[in-house]
Amino acid sequence: MVTTAAGLIRPHGGELVERMGERPEGVEGLETVRLTSRELSDLDMLASGALSPLTGFMGREDYERVLEEMRLAGGLPWALPVCLAVEQAPAGDRIALADETGRTLAVLEVEEVYSYDKEREAEKVFRTTDGEHPGVARLYRQHDRYVAGPVTVFERLEPPFPELHRDPAETRSLFSEKGWRRVVGFQTRNPIHRAHEYLTKCALETVDGLLIHPLVGETKSDDVPVEVRVDAYRALIERYFPEERVVVSAFPAAMRYAGPREAIWHAICRKNYGCSHFIVGRDHAGVGDYYGTYDAQLIFDELEPHELDIEPMFFEHAFWCRACGQMATPKTCPHSGDDHVFLSGTKVRELLSQGELPPEEFSRPEVAEILIEAYRST
Ligand SMILES: [Zn+2]
């Protein structure tokens, strides 16, 4: 692990690249492009340094090499395109970037406009061209050209959870204050049941601190709403984690559901936030049956060992085993499924929506009660 003076892992590419600045003159007169929610998330992550070393939306050279080799033009590993789609080539050499309401947030210096093949991008990034895949569907709805160039963000998005909002520089200084050098990041877009509590605790046993980094950007509409998840994380940590070893903070990315490639991208972003380790579970960032159970773990083998610097920690699915009398995984438990307390996602939703608590071996009652309450009020 390559560390900074403060002892934390270095950002991807060596330096934190933040793209915030003063509102330049003449923004009002510029051609304005309204960004989609995914593009807005990307813009905000460019501003904060979460996408270091990127300085803006990708040009063709970076885009091509990312698609073909999972690398930026300069050779640094990078798994997902970070591109801005436009209807037509802008007339000027600068454009203003705005949110859905038309509020201007940033300026982009136009370096390049290029066309791209949506099906090819889908195949490379999502491993499918099926328009039913939510990430592919979004790609197909995009405009037909990409505009590339560095951005300067002068107005940030309002974070959905101001108290959970921390930019990479802030998580880094927080970790340093706590004296942490090794920090494991845990990405989630679901409430944490016993299985994930177990994984995060196993990981925490080997490092100094745990960053629970729930994704609060756009997700599918059937994922559990972020407000509910945040309440559930708080209840869990308050009752079952040593508070001084855990930080909960929001990860502002939009889900792409790109499975394996997104797992690598998520790891790189967390490195920028100061994590030296990153938990990759089964089917990380997957959706439906598009990816094999272990694809998001296997893809890390396509890079040289330690090339990412951040260390992926691979985990199996965990369960309570009655014979072991503890949480375990197929890696650590020799008993058959009959001894395991396992509920499918569908079964859990069914119980919760009927106001029933799942078994304590599956879900902490404090967490389940919050979920039941949420189901009741919808
Ligand atoms: Zn067992």
Report on the structure:
The chain is of the alpha/beta class. Helices cover 30% and strands 17% of the residues. The chain contains 11 helices and 15 strands. The protein has helices spanning 37-48, 60-69, 118-126, 134-141, 168-177, 194-204, 226-240, 260-272, 295-298, 345-353, 365-376; strands spanning 32-34, 56-57, 84-86, 94-98, 104-109, 112-115, 145-153, 183-188, 209-214, 246-248, 277-280, 311-314, 319-321, 326-328, 340-341. The strands form 3 sheets. Strands 1, 2, 3, 4, 5, 6 and 7 form a 7-stranded mixed beta sheet that branches. The protein has a 5-stranded parallel beta sheet with strand order 10-9-8-11-12, sandwiched between helices. Helix 3 packs antiparallel against helix 4 (134-141) and helix 7 (226-240) packs antiparallel against helix 11 (365-376). The longest helix has 15 residues, at 226-240. The chain is globular and about 70 Å long. Bound molecules: zinc ion.
Q: Name the hetero compounds present.
A: zinc ion
Structural class from helices and strands?
alpha/beta
Order of helices and strands: EHEHEEEEHHEHEHEHEHEHEEEEHH
Principal-axes geometry comes out as globular
Number of helices: 11
Largest sheet: 7 strands, mixed
